Amino acid sequence: MAQTVVALDIGGTKSAAALVTGEGTVLDVMTAPTPGEQGPEAILRIASGLAADLLVTATARGHEVAGLGVGSAGVIDASTGRVLSATEVLRNWAGTDVRGALSELSGIRHVVVDNDVHAHAIGESWLGAAAGASSAFFVAVGTGIGASVVIDGAVWHGRRNVAGHFGHVAVPHAAGLPCVCGGSGHLEAVAAGPAMVWAYNRRAGADLVPLADVARRADEGDRLAALTIGIGARALGSAIGGAANLLDPEVVVIGGGVMGVGPRWWEPMEEALRAELLPPLADLPVLPARLGPSAALVGAARLVWKDLS
Ligand SMILES: [Zn+2]
After folding, report:
1. CATH number 3.30.420.40 given to 133-289
2. Neighbours of ion ligand 1 (CB under 5 A)
């Protein structure tokens, strides 16, 4: 019987799930809003509901489910599958035994859980922009900014599972700006999507919500909009360049919702990044993520397949 894995991506606003084959083919993607404000029980009920639907689908396809791979928002202890900390977007998520709960609710015995950005990075390292590279520095820039150092296909979690919190490095562009972590002057406070929207609204006396609206204004010739996007892009690029000097990865891969702004954001970001690089890094590949929204599902599934191999 063909084997498959159920993959789950529990995000701040949306949860997604799919069947993923051993070759990384993604089948039967399903999504549902994450009821983050309702707490862990509701979040896990939605997640296990998606998994249950996919178990039925797998049976109909004649596939045997080998395990459940989960990427979740929050700081995750991948060795236990527990949430160590999380923002209030997922209320009371800290302390949740995601592995134990989902195993019980879904009936799937083999469950692997990791942070969603790490899952995304594993996906890109397996079959995406970093495929074939022995090391990669992956950065996701969206509502927040996360990163992942992948070496020989495995994520560097750090001693306390905090590695990759790239949004919380100090950068000059963010001096004095408050950060969601309670600190100030951090990259996320100037370069994440909501930070750029906030900065534009403050500069222009506007009241926009999505970053796409700021980008559209920039396209229409609004100089403050273009300036704001450029500042965020350059702040991120400089920080990634510095990280590349520290890590010397084979490849840098950048993904996340802010990528949707396009060349207006990418070009100043890459220019600022390359301006920071030490001379031996001049040919460092800096690539956009390739797997799109299913990257975290592919990566979460990969964690299960690796565990089973
Ligand atoms: Zn911070």
Report:
1. yes
2. 168, 179, 181, 183, 186
d(CA 199, CA 106): 44
Classified as helix, coil or strand, 199 is helix
Going by the DSSP 8-state scheme, the letter that residue 163 receives in this structure is T
Q: Are strands 75-77 and 82-85 parallel, antiparallel or unpaired?
A: antiparallel
pLDDT digits (tens, 9 = 90+) for 78-103: 999 999 999 888 999 999 999 999 99
The pLDDT value recorded for residue 1 is: 81
- Cα-based torsion angle of the residue sequence 302, 306, 308, 309 in order, rounded to the nearest 10 degrees: 130
Task: Kindly write down the DSSP assignment for every residue of 204-270, as one continuous string.
Answer: HT----SHHHHHHHHHTT-HHHHHHHHHHHHHHHHHHHHHHHHH--SEEEEESGGGGG-HHHHHHHH
Tell the CATH superfamily of the 2-121+293-308 domain: ATPase, nucleotide binding domain (3.30.420.40)
pTM (predicted TM-score)? 0.95
263 CA from centroid of ligand 1 (Å): 27
